[in-house]
Structure formats: C-alpha cells, structure tokens
Design brief:
The structure is a single chain. This protein is of the alpha/beta class and 322 residues long. It is built from 15 helices and 14 strands. The strands form five sheets. A four-stranded mixed sheet has the order 9-12-13-14, sandwiched between helices. A three-stranded antiparallel sheet has the order 1-3-2. A three-stranded mixed sheet has the order 4-8-7. Strand 12 and strand 13 form a beta hairpin.
Length: 322
C-alpha cells in the first residue's frame, strides 16, 4: 500500500473531532497495532506520548502554542487516575495566555505515589493543596479534569516561570476574575519557600487592564523607563468616534499601540476592523496626537523600544510646552 493511500486511509477513519487519538480509539476505528506501527514508520502518525497519536500532517501545521495544547490533551486521554494539573498546564486549561512557557505537563500532589516516577513529558510538583486551591473543569468533550484554581495557578507560574511569562499569565487571570488579595495571602503564607520572592515581584506589577500578551510585555518595558507612567485603555473621543489606545500620555498627547498579538496568537482581524482602526487613528492625529506602533519583533530589543518611546515622549513634551 503506497504512502498516499495509507495517509488517505488514516484521514478517512480517524475519529471525528479528535485531534489526538488513543491507541484504543485507533483500534476501534480499524487501525490495529500493525497499521499504527506502519503509520509511525512512514511519517503519517506522530506519537505525542505512549498511547497518544496525532496525524503528522496536522501536527506539523500547528503553531508551537497549539502543539503544547495537544501535548496536554495527550496526557489527559492516557493518564491513569485523576491528577491535579497545575502551573502552566492549569493556565492552558483555564484558557489563559501562555507565552514562551514550559511545554511539559505539570501536576501537583502532596507526595509521589510509591514506586512510581514521572515520564519525561511530565513535571511533578510536591505541594500540599487545600481544597479551596483546586477546582474541577469540564472540557469540550465532556471529560472532567482537576486543576488548581486561577489564583493558585498564577502563584505557581510566578514561582516556577520567568518573570515576563508569569506576568502575561497573571494579567490575563486578573481579567478572568482572579483576586489579587487571595494571591497575596497565598504567597504570604509561604515564607522561605522556593520562588516566593519571584512570585511577589510578579504580583506587584500585575495589571488586569492589559488586554493581551504584547500589551503586557510592552508595559513591562515602559515600567523600566524614567518617565511618567502612561494610562492604560483610556477612552478617547475624536470626531464623535470612540478610541481606546493601549498606552496614553494625555498631557503629551502620545499613544503607544501594540499591533502584534494577532500575528503571534493567530488572531486574524478583518480588513474592516483594521480600516476602522486606522480611520480613528487618523482623526486623533488630526487633533495633535502622536503614535508609536509596536510588533512582536520590536519587543526582542527592549532598549530600542525605550529609545523610540523616549524620543517620542521628549518631542511630544516640547510640542505641548510650545
């Protein structure tokens, strides 16, 4: 049987609405051990972990962050027992923005099961979780999973992850209802524990007004600058139209906008939305506002972003004083 014919067979019998299939699901679909082995050999199948497979053509067309979600799904359909997902895995299950974080599956338990060890794609954390730290979540397929709640998830990511990465998660969690006072109570109850100082640094800068990962990263760059801090998501009106820029210095009539999230997270604004945004920008420029637009590639050079903003801020300040 030729490879193209094999690919067509896998596509034809693959379980519907199932990006990741277990061995049992493939066998039920008529793909036994020999077919699975041949699919792996011929590059038609990609094994995410023991007992969990995805069609290779689908896998290789995914963005890295979507591949990370499938790795988690592979664990969900193959794991025995009821683990408590935590850290970056819980963040993904909560639907939080997860940028540049560990793709492995994270679980938390009070102690490891005797005689067992975690596979390479799993990070097991030892932590005593109180009942209020854990919640159940129903997935789209009806499966119930157990995971840390929003507040515990943010604290876990802040203790274990990078600073900017944790702030991206925390900002989004605040927008989804996480309570700052609960997170502070958690870290204050962990004196001397690993990562607590990191977590406190993250909590100090969280801001639920940031609406995207790019805005969060831009804000963290601006925070380091020796200029007055901007207002976030201020409502401005120009020619009767409402506009909500990302960062605003009203006295200087300066606006910084981040444009790149749809490129990183695969959002696709319509031409009509982009056109309307540019019209509003034009009206504001006619009233004396200055704009700086940033993209993901700009954030790779924070020093240059600072230079651009500083130059625009100085020019705007001079114009306002004239």
């Amino acid at each position: 049987m030729g490879q193209q014919t094999s690919q067509e067979r896998f596509s034809r019998v693959w379980p519907a609405n199932t990006p990741v299939a277990s061995t049992a699901q493939l066998v039920e679909a008529g793909l036994g051990d020999r077919a699975i082995a041949a699919g792996l050999r011929d590059g038609i199948l990609y094994r995410l972990r023991k007992g969990a497979y995805v069609q290779a053509v689908h896998w290789h067309n995914l963005k890295p962050w979507d591949q990370d979600k499938l790795r988690l799904l592979a664990h969900l359909i193959t794991v025995r027992g009821t683990p408590t997902y935590s850290h970056f895995s819980a963040a993904r299950l909560h639907g939080l923005f997860v940028w540049h974080c560990d793709p492995r599956v994270h679980t938390t338990a009070a102690s490891p099961v005797s005689g067992t060890s975690h596979p390479k794609d799993v990070v097991g954390h030892r932590e005593n979780l109180v009942p209020g730290d854990v919640q159940s979540l129903s997935l789209r397929n009806g499966q119930m999973v157990q995971l840390t709640n929003l507040e515990r998830t943010v604290v876990g990511c802040a203790r274990a992850g990078g600073f900017a990465e944790a702030v991206v998660i925390g900002d989004h969690a605040l927008r989804k209802g996480a309570r700052s006072e609960v997170m502070w109570a958690m870290v204050n109850a962990m004196p001397g524990r690993r990562g607590v100082r990191k977590a406190k640094r993250v909590l100090r800068v969280l801001d639920g007004r940031s609406e995207s990962p790019g805005e969060t990263r831009t804000r963290l760059i601006i925070v380091e600058m020796k200029i007055p801090q901007p207002e976030l998501q201020v409502t401005l009106t120009a020619a009767g139209r409402v506009y909500r820029p990302d960062f605003v210095w009203q006295d200087q009539k300066l606006i910084v906008e981040f444009d790149g999230d749809y490129k990183y997270f695969d959002y696709r604004p319509t031409r009509e939305v982009i056109l309307e945004e540019r019209k509003r920008e034009k009206r504001l420029m006619e009233e004396g506002w200055r704009f700086i637009r940033l993209e993901w590639r700009d954030l790779a050079d924070p020093a240059d972003v600072m230079r651009r903003i500083q130059a625009a801020f100085d020019a705007a300040s001079q114009a306002a004083a004239a």
